Amino acid sequence: MNPVADNPLQTRADFGRAVEQLFEPLQRHYSPGNARVRPTAGGAHFPDVAAELEGFSRPLWGIVPLAVGDEFDGWPRLRTGLVNGTDPSHEEYWGRAGDYAQKHVEMAAIGVGLALTPEHVWEPLSEGERERLVEWLNQINEAELYDCNWLFFRVMVNAGLRSVGARHDWERTQSSLDRLESFYRGDGWYTDGPAGDASPTDYYLPWAMHFYGLVYATVVDDDPERAERFRDRAAAFASHHAHWFDDEGRAIPHGRSLTYRFAQAAFWGALAYAGVNPLPWEEIRGVWARNVRWWLDQPIFTDGGLLSVGYRYPSLKVSESYNSPNSPYWAMKAFFPLALDADHPFWRADEAPLPDLPATRAQPEARKVVCRGDDHLFALSLPQDSVHGREKYTKFAYSTEFAFSVASRRPGPGKAGHDSALALSLDGDQYKIPASATATEVRGTTLRSRWEPWDGVSVETWLAPALPWHVRVHRVETRRPIHSEEGGFALDRTGDDDRAQFSHDASDGTALARYPSGMSGIADPLGERSPVVLAEEPNTNLNHPRTVVPTLRASHDPGEQWLVSAVKAAPDSEATWDGRPELGGVDDDALTVETPGGETLLECVPDAL
């Protein structure tokens, strides 16, 4: 059941009504004391009380900005929950929050509520209720937090307490802000934590680092120099971030926490809230609205109208260990422009498409080359370290149309999430894709990396765009026999109940699949690997529950060898399979790939990385 199915999502009033429509299905899952929300029996790695607190706090990211200028009749329930959740004598008390506790994450929305809507969150409380709220929130000043965007939760809490004249720790707030600013890399780019491979660049950059910085710059009026830095950095990042969105409003899926879905629009909404328009308001309004509309038109809801865990459809297989049933409501951060008056330029602007963007754009800070074809947006990508799933950070390509897949729970060929990846095995059963890289390089629009999965086995890879194709070259050095599977883009296999609607071609070094949803293929110009079209385990792809992956397979004896792949996919099932790059020349020291016209596209020389 889609609770916003009847909402055109065009005007400010429409988006305000969407907040209420998304909140309504949660209400039947409130506890008697209104402090906890438990929509399903699922859980996360943290205690249930923290997961149930998520259900209370996360909708506030949309409710608070809505209530800045509009009526919202749910405040009595929310205030009751706030009072009971912070009362140690009440059975629904949220409890103590020690070091690194999830409860600190959820405090941030309450802090923002204090800053933006004190007439609802603070002023109606009695003196004792206020004291207990302040005591509970101030735990964030006594605890250790993860050294990443989590430090902004302390900032949000203290900004809210300070705004109502309550006890807070402004010195520690400023120290946290200084630490957060140390993660800045320049030209709008942050890492989510100290610089290095353990701090990947993903959506936590726009929807956390920039989002909270812009909120701080707007609600705190006596830190002008820092506020100006936050605004300037966000303005610089906007020109880069625009490349991550296609004409429909979809963003390239990559990294963790993708179940937050239309939080992808939060950065653009925060720009508006902070009065920052490095792009025309029409373009900012357009990319924001298209993303929210696209998401709310997808099957992302449960039968009861709740946001589900998953990406484009419900699936726990793509979740992280910290995703509780309430986690998806982080998406409500997208609605922050509702805090603006109806006559703000953002709301008065007519939606416009993004400006013309180049077909390829290297983004070394993100370790990517964004490729924009006529009907397919994808990013070639270098591996990044993360504890949250290698498939989310180490694929060769990430696509709005075809997304990516996570590994199956079972071993065996075709089970390692090998779409847009090279999976290797020592025994032909236990396959794996890279968890990290030992070296990476961005040279123009060519990406290069080295992976060492086992002692005595190394893989050096070159990636380059050749739109609508891309090329992958691997130089494999091994002292032991190994097996490999390399996949193209995963393709929705809907329609496979009618043989006339789909086709598989696995011959002459080419694996090609066509379904009503589109075309996907991978070719081996060397002709040394066996082509096959493999069915993935259901519910492992982010976009589609049932997919196939065109695949090249081989077994490799000890020694040195080159592997070459030309990859193409399109949402048109009748898309042509011609014009692919071809092998130029190969020897022990170098390999060349050429365009069909004979121009050198990629020259791979295994010099030092």
Summarize it:
This protein is α+β, with helices and mostly antiparallel strands.
Features:
609 residues; alpha+beta; 8-stranded antiparallel β-sheet; 6-stranded antiparallel β-sheet; 23 strands; elongated; DUF2264_C; DUF2264_N
Give the topology.
Elements: H1 12-23, H2 48-57, H3 60-69, H4 75-85, H5 102-116, H6 118-121, H7 127-137, H8 151-163, H9 170-181, E1 184-186, E2 189-190, H10 204-219, H11 224-241, H12 266-273, H13 281-296, H14 345-348, E3 360-363, E4 368-372, E5 377-381, E6 397-399, E7 422-425, E8 431-432, E9 439-443, E10 446-454, E11 457-466, E12 469-478, E13 482-487, E14 491-492, E15 503-507, E16 510-515, E17 518-523, E18 530-535, E19 547-556, E20 559-570, E21 582-586, E22 591-594, E23 600-604
Antiparallel strand pairs: 1-2, 3-4, 4-5, 5-6, 7-8, 7-13, 9-10, 10-11, 11-12, 12-20, 13-19, 14-19, 15-16, 16-17, 17-20, 18-19, 21-22, 22-23
Protein name: DUF2264 domain-containing protein
Pfam families: DUF2264, DUF2264_C
Domain DUF2264: 11-353, 360-577
